[in-house]
From TrEMBL:
<dbReference type="GO" id="GO:0004113">
    <property type="term" value="F:2',3'-cyclic-nucleotide 3'-phosphodiesterase activity"/>
</dbReference>
<feature type="active site" description="Proton acceptor">
    <location>
        <position position="128"/>
    </location>
</feature>
<dbReference type="InterPro" id="IPR009097">
    <property type="entry name" value="Cyclic_Pdiesterase"/>
</dbReference>
<feature type="short sequence motif" description="HXTX 2">
    <location>
        <begin position="128"/>
        <end position="131"/>
    </location>
</feature>
<comment type="similarity">
    <text>Belongs to the 2H phosphoesterase superfamily. ThpR family.</text>
</comment>
<comment type="function">
    <text>Hydrolyzes RNA 2',3'-cyclic phosphodiester to an RNA 2'-phosphomonoester.</text>
</comment>
<dbReference type="GO" id="GO:0008664">
    <property type="term" value="F:RNA 2',3'-cyclic 3'-phosphodiesterase activity"/>
</dbReference>
<dbReference type="InterPro" id="IPR004175">
    <property type="entry name" value="RNA_CPDase"/>
</dbReference>
<feature type="active site" description="Proton donor">
    <location>
        <position position="40"/>
    </location>
</feature>
<dbReference type="Pfam" id="PF13563">
    <property type="entry name" value="2_5_RNA_ligase2"/>
</dbReference>
<feature type="short sequence motif" description="HXTX 1">
    <location>
        <begin position="40"/>
        <end position="43"/>
    </location>
</feature>
<protein>
    <recommendedName>
        <fullName>RNA 2',3'-cyclic phosphodiesterase</fullName>
        <ecNumber>3.1.4.58</ecNumber>
    </recommendedName>
</protein>
<keyword id="KW-0378">Hydrolase</keyword>
Length: 187
């Protein structure tokens, strides 16, 4: 099964984002916008994981989550991968969490590897909320869109749990929570 590990922002925080994004959807027909009900903050993508690896993975993720404290995060700023001029992905930035967020991301990625997950992301961790993907293969110049989205500054929210998510690919991608563990470490 295709798995990733993520934080799941509360509905209020996502509703704010939806309000800001709505204004731009019609103006950018060459972007495929992610449905708000699929929005999440990926900590680590694990790839295709065999069912037999699941019990070990869950044990390791529970342990990792237990070592880190809850964090206060906020959606703030925006950007595009690989660049605003040739964007494949348009995203909203995440502020807060400082070192804890990237250490948590590294820990859950390591938990995945040790449990036998095949995918290893070589890129440095860059927390983001994917809003849209470009239809053209060569990417799209989204500089004005990113310029406007950069103004976005959401209300801070509490990240207090780690979610193991399964992704069902298809014409309409669907994500399902397989398991969830509280961030139970001390500040
Ligand atoms: P993205 O938000 O930048 O698209 C489920 O696919 C989640 O895992 C998405 O949030 C996606 O990131 C992330 N992810 C990271 N690396 C991936 C990869 N190689 N293939 C698919 N998804 C990946």
């Amino acid at each position: 099964m295709r798995l990733f590990v993520a934080l799941s922002p509360p509905q209020e925080a996502l509703a704010e984002v939806a309000g800001a994004v709505e204004l731009h959807v019609e103006g950018w027909p060459e972007l495929r916008w992610a449905a708000p009900e699929t929005w999440h903050l990926t900590l680590a993508f694990l790839g295709e994981v065999p069912e037999t690896a699941l019990p070990g993975l869950k044990t390791r993720l529970a342990r990792a989550a237990g070592r880190y404290p809850p964090m206060t995060l906020a959606f703030r700023g925006a950007g595009a991968f690989p660049s605003a001029r040739r964007a494949r992905v348009v995203w909203l930035g995440v502020e807060g969490g400082d070192a804890v967020l990237s250490r948590l991301a590294a820990s859950v990625a390591a938990a995945g590897r040790r449990a036998g997950a095949p995918y290893e992301d070589k890129k440095p961790y860059h927390p983001h909320l994917t809003l849209a993907r470009a239809r053209p293969k060569e990417g799209l110049d989204v500089t004005p869109l990113v310029g406007e989205l950069k103004e976005f500054a959401g209300t801070p929210w509490r990240a207090d749990a780690v979610h193991l998510m399964r992704s069902h690919l298809g014409r309409k991608v669907r994500y399902e929570t397989v398991a969830c563990w509280p961030l139970a470490g001390r500040d």
